[in-house]
Design a protein that fits this description.
This protein is of the alpha/beta class.
């Protein structure tokens, strides 16, 4: 630290109280104005002539009259009938010491704001040699970065976002991170240039209304907020706008019209793709397991019966001859020496069969009908083949569960349906908001399982990001289910395979602890006062402050920086609900040009008279 830095000092290290290698106090100059979360630097000369610089963050500010012993002395000091000195102090927690010597700063050492190069060192940005991702702005409007190694899985991965629903803006912050990665030039470079970014895919589950089905449209409120555009500019984004490469999915509409149309109210049905699974896909991808929640698993033997039925469906699976819509035949007889390994069975191509050789399955209801027929048969061998040696009560419990699911999951299984494809755009938004909780768990499990299977053996790249809110619903702190086990597996091994989870929940204590524990980036918005003690990565003072955070303020913790840093992120330029959605002029212009071209083509060549 130079002498010119000393000239701009904010105060001196307090000598009336002890300082240590983790915390010290600064007595502020009378003219100094400093806020919480500002960065401070203190240079100390050690015995022998060596110099170290302590970098810290202001965690608390205090003010008192030195010389006043009683509360009533305050009035006397103000009236100047009692001599006293107004003293303001800043509590500072040490972020870094350069060089790395674990010593305390000297009492009386001058303290300055850590600006420019000092700020870079204080926040370890000089150590982020493999790239750094902007994750927000500090209170002074300067950019705060995350080490990209802990975002893309090289040294760590996953993001855990917590906070009160509707106030903490958890989903908005998750989308902000995705926007920085997928829609900005700096994000493109961090992902390996254009080729790297084009291969990255993000899967976002929409759980509330149809809010996220408008991410490809501009935010109508953004134009009236010029200060927000300046914030984006400070983050290095000159032209913020909507997500450009987006594909939208929603469940199909119910009805007997025969057509498969997406069930949406705030978008044209032509803009949204209906999704589902054919009977063949349902069986070969072993999706029956995701029909059962933690309440059904292991507390009874229903999980064992489900596994037996899943294997029998695979062993007896045949394609219906003459059909191209995904209908299948569940054969009555199984050839000898047929494997019982479900993964091996799922990989083989099913042979064709006519309708008369077994039970034709065209939807979820046909599966239930088949199993009820098996139960009604007075054939112990057949019963054991399908259900193992489970007791009658267990078989009935399994069937009752499927019967309850007929209405909820049934519309998602049928001939002619197509699953979500990850190849048509960078960002894929899957609406599950209109589905029952059971169907939501089914869709999340089915899609995550496909992503997970596709990444096995491919290495870390290309990256797959998954944004999932209400994480406690799918991976609760207690209980067991295939979906919970899958999410825990992703949390523990996903970064090495390039599957990175951006999970959000109201309370981290309600989620399986493997998920927040394995997240490299831990983010908290406004917290419930009763839950704040669960966030040990925050200091006690910061946990208390987090109960009063306003929307747009978050605190970010990452491995390379020893203390969490409060940040603010700008208002989104993309619509996050139907009320904000404005017409995209560029997209509208492209559609208008296409209409003109089509009309011209229909009119034919112009003939002059």
């Amino acid at each position: 630290m130079s002498d010119s830095d000393d000239a701009g000092r904010i105060g001196l290290v307090d000598g009336s109280v002890e300082s240590d290698s983790r915390t010290f106090h600064v007595v502020l100059e009378p003219t100094t104005l400093i806020q919480l979360d500002e960065l401070v630097a203190v240079a100390t000369e050690l015995p022998g002539g060596a110099r170290v610089t302590h970098y810290g963050i202001v965690t608390e500010l205090r003010s008192r009259f030195e010389g006043a012993d009683l509360p009533s002395d305050t009035g006397r000091v103000v009236d100047r009938t009692l001599p006293a000195e107004h003293v303001r102090r800043a509590e500072v927690r040490v972020l870094r010491v350069v060089p790395e010597l674990f010593v305390s700063p000297h009492a009386g050492a001058p303290a300055t704001r850590a600006l420019g190069e000092h700020r870079t060192v204080a926040l370890f940005e000089d150590e982020m040699t493999r790239g750094k991702l902007p994750v927000g702005l500090d209170l002074g409007g300067a950019t705060v970065y995350a080490d990209m190694r802990f975002v893309d899985g090289r040294s760590g991965g996953h993001v855990s976002i917590s906070g009160i629903s509707g106030v903490a803006t958890k989903t908005s912050y998750a989308l902000f991170l995705l926007y920085q990665l997928l829609e900005t030039e700096q994000g493109m470079e961090l992902l390996g240039g254009r080729a790297g970014r084009e291969s990255v895919r993000a899967l976002v589950f929409n759980t509330k209304g149809e809010d996220l089905l408008h991410l490809d449209r501009p935010n109508s409120e953004f134009a009236g907020r010029p200060e927000e555009r300046e914030k984006w500019r400070a983050l290095g984004v000159e032209r913020p706008g909507p997500f450009r490469s987006v594909r939208l999915y929603a469940p199909r509409q119910s009805g007997d019209s025969g057509s498969i149309v997406a069930n949406v109210q705030t978008r044209r049905t032509a803009d949204v793709n209906p999704y589902g699974w054919t009977p063949e896909q349902f069986i070969r991808e072993q999706l029956l397991q995701f029909c059962f929640s933690s309440d059904d698993e292991r507390s009874t033997q229903v999980g064992f019966v489900e596994q037996q039925v899943r294997i029998q469906l695979l062993r007896r699976l045949r394609r219906l001859e003459g059909d191209a819509t995904g209908a299948v035949v569940i054969a009555e007889a199984v050839p000898p020496n047929t494997s019982y390994n479900p993964d091996r069975l799922a990989e083989r191509e099913p042979a064709g069969a006519s309708a008369g050789t077994g039970h034709v399955m065209r939807d979820f209801g046909d599966l239930i009908d088949l199993l009820e027929e098996v139960v009604a048969e007075d054939d112990e061998g057949l019963m054991n083949a399908w259900f193992g040696r489970a007791q009658s009560g267990t078989r009935q419990a399994f069937l009752r569960r499927l019967l309850r699911l007929r209405r909820h999951i049934g519309p998602l299984i049928g001939c002619g349906l197509e699953p979500v494809s990850a190849e048509n755009a960078k960002l894929h938004v899957v609406d599950i908001s209109t589905l029952h909780d059971d169907a939501q768990r089914f869709v999340v499990g089915a899609l995550l399982d496909r992503v997970w299977r596709e990444k096995q053996g491919t290495g870390r790249t290309p990256l797959r990001f998954v944004v999932l809110d209400e994480l406690n619903k799918y991976a609760p702190a207690h209980g067991f289910s295939p979906l919970r086990d899958l999410l825990v597996d992703i949390a523990e091994r996903g970064r090495s395979l390039g599957v990175l989870l951006i999970g959000a929940q109201q309370a981290a204590s309600a989620v399986a602890q493997a998920l927040p524990r394995n997240a490299s980036l831990k983010v908290a918005g406004r917290l419930d006062a009763s839950e704040s003690d669960a966030y040990r990565f925050l200091t006690p003072a910061l946990r208390e402050r987090a109960t009063r955070f306003m929307p747009g303020t978050m605190v970010v913790s990452q491995p390379i920086v020893p203390e969490p840093i409060p940040v603010r992120f700008p208002f989104p330029p993309f619509a996050t609900n139907p009320d904000e959605a404005a017409e995209d002029e560029e997209a509208a212009g492209a559609r208008a040009a296409a209409i003109v071209r089509n009309v011209g083509a229909l009119a034919g060549p112009k003939v002059e008279l």
